[in-house]
Specification:
Two copies of one chain form a homodimer. By secondary structure, chain A is mainly α. Helix content of chain A is about 70%, strand content about 5%. Chain A has one domain: Orthogonal Bundle (Multidrug-efflux Transporter Regulator, Chain: A, Domain 2), CATH 1.10.1660.10. Chain A has five helices and two strands. The first copy, chain A, has a two-stranded antiparallel ribbon with strand order 1-2. Chain A is elongated and about 75 Å long. The termini of chain A are far apart. The model of chain A has no long low-confidence stretch (mean pLDDT about 95). The structure holds a DNA duplex (30 and 30 nucleotides). Chains A, B: It comes from Cohnella silvisoli. Chains A, B: This is MerR family transcriptional regulator.
Amino acid sequence: MKIGELSARTGVSIRSLRYYEQQKLLTSVRQENGYREYTPLAEEQVRTIQFYLALGITTEQIASFLNCVLKNKEAFCEEVLPIYKQKLKEIDDQIHLLNNIKSNLEDRIRSIQEG
Amino acid sequence: MKIGELSARTGVSIRSLRYYEQQKLLTSVRQENGYREYTPLAEEQVRTIQFYLALGITTEQIASFLNCVLKNKEAFCEEVLPIYKQKLKEIDDQIHLLNNIKSNLEDRIRSIQEG
DNA sequence: CTTGACCCTGACATTAATGTCAGGGTTTAT
DNA sequence: ATAAACCCTGACATTAATGTCAGGGTCAAG
């Protein structure tokens, strides 16, 4: 299929599909006219990429394990676990930071409304 | 005092102090040689700016109420409360989003470690 | 009078994925 | 054969505060 169809099937913009290819997350073969041609498997692959992006995993990290998880179950890809754990730590840190700010804001709102 | 001293006293970089001035958070008078001259009050003012920035308030929002809070108590500045509440909502949303991602990551880590 | 420590402005870089535009080919249907 | 709907590459923009550099004045101490 061509890029427009892949975009329509996945809901991912053409711009992003080209970007994923540049980041080596997605491959295509070129037709004689230069158009990208995708296999039907590309659709599932794009959904997988979107799934990891939604977890906050960067394209660079995804590239490091995508080939493996597309062939095996996630659990067989040793690259995945450390990345998940690192991401989890980043998110935990971020949540703590936001909770601190939240408490601070709530205090100030309360003190304004009382004063 | 000159900008280097204000920077040393507050721990805020010279670059940032100039930026605050450009964003109309901070004022200075120019000496004949073009150097910025700050009053002693600037030190407290810079600390106040840093405090709001640490709450995630943007310079543009700070500019909208800084003059008021420097003269009055925060509670007298009606501009402050809606900004606090808006920021609180943004932070709440962000925390929820991060908690969702966190649960998702934890699930996947667990399933890898079990599998 | 020279050196080092200040100060100035203006500009570019930073992050990461995506939007958007320009300029230009290709295909398909009429 | 022409118009509409595709496709291509390359480039700039987006956010917000800060870092950093270039090129150039100013001041103070020796």
